[in-house]
Amino acid sequence: MSEQPKSMTCAEFQAQLPEFIGSGASAAGHPHLKECALCRELLENLETIAQAARQLFPEVEPPDELWEQIELAIKKDEGGEG
Amino acid sequence: MLGAELEETPGYSQRKLMGQARVPVKGPSGEVSGAEPAEGTAGQLAAKQVNAQQRTATVVSIELLGRAAAGDHGAFGEIYSLHKRRIYSLCLRMVGNPAEAEDLTQEAFLQLHRKIATFRGESAFSTWLHRLTINVVLMRLRKKGLQLISLDEAMEPTTEERPGRSFGADDLSLTGAIDRMALQRAIDDLPAGYRLIFMLHDIEGYEHNEIADMLNCSIGNSKSQLHKARLKLREALRVHSREEGQR
Predict the structure, then answer these.
(1) Which of A2, A59, B52, B100 could in theory staple to B89 by disulfide, Cβ–Cβ 3.0 to 4.6 A?
(2) Hey, is A66 helix, strand or coil?
(3) ipTM reported for the complex, 2 dp
(4) For chain A, which residues score pLDDT lower than 70?
(5) Which of B100, B107, B166 has the highest number of chain A CBs within 10 A, making it the mutation to test binding with A?
(6) Do B85 and A62 make contact, defined as CB atoms within 8 angstroms?
(7) Residue B80 in contact with partner chain A when CB distance is under 8 A
(8) Residues of A in Cβ contact (< 8 Å) with B130
(9) Summary mean pLDDT of chain B
(10) The CATH classification of domain B177-246, taken from the options 1.10.10.10, 1.10.10.410, 2.30.40.10, 3.30.390.50
(11) Hey, CA dihedral for A7, A11, A15, A17, is it positive or negative?
């Protein structure tokens, strides 16, 4: 795979990207990235999107009445079992 | 039994966040937040803060779990109070719909009530409950007839997905702030199967082998769908950027 890294085209590298996604460490050192700014940028973009997405989902409180609904469901469930 | 020690472990999201820098995100009014010059420190700090909260929750839960498992409704209510934010937020992230997230949260806690006595303490309670909730969500999606992992095969490949297509200089550069609203919309617009894997991997922090196990698919399939999901998001942001530029 990496015997002749200089001959790898962008298309060939990008075809391998799914393997790298989520294992950034192994992709960062790929020989093709050292010589190809476009693919380096692509990989950075994809990682940047993932990091930005993590900031989009803060924890939020459920509505107060949800607990009452859950209590009712539990009672109904217990009634069904008994 | 429930007397087993409950280790304090980082939540999945926090585990992934560790060591990762925050990136600038542009808010609805154009303000930029989240920039982090020192690599990893913000993510680690946030993770530590969340872990501290989790630790408190877990320590309290050790004692509560035994009572709840013995049928103490008050104890179960306390467990709900401690975990409701995490579980509701998880459901909301997974389905993107508040009403459905409430329904799923209810189902998750109903399942918890049924199964709490089976918790063996082999993992942190919060981790166990997180996985239980994911399973509830997946079951619901399957009931709705959603094909969780093969949507890509049914869809026509879009331009950016075709094999061999490489990205050129006209593609979006994301060196600046990412528009929060545009990214949110792009995630909401992802096909359900892509969204699911993106959420499980990139937001919830599950590894591909865990996702493959949950969805009963191959690891390669999980990797492929995640990659396509990210490409779709990138493409959506590029379109948004162009539209903004034309205004």
Answers:
(1) A59
(2) helix
(3) 0.78
(4) 1-7, 21-26, 80-82
(5) B166
(6) yes
(7) yes
(8) none
(9) 74
(10) 1.10.10.10
(11) positive
